[in-house]
Amino acid sequence: MEERLGKIKITNNIAGYRRLQAYVEKYRRNLIPIYGLEDVSHYGRDLAIYLLDQDYTVKEVNSALSFMERNSYATVKKSDEWDAQCISAVLSRRSETLPDANPQDYYWTMKHLVGRRDALVKNTASLIQQFHEQIQKQYPGYKQFFHDIECRTSLAFFERYPSAGHLQGVTVEELGAFLREKSHNTGSDKRAELILNLVEQEQTKEREYQSGRDLILQAYPVKSISISRK
Question: CA 41, CA 180: separation in Å to the nearest integer?
Answer without folding.
Answer: 52
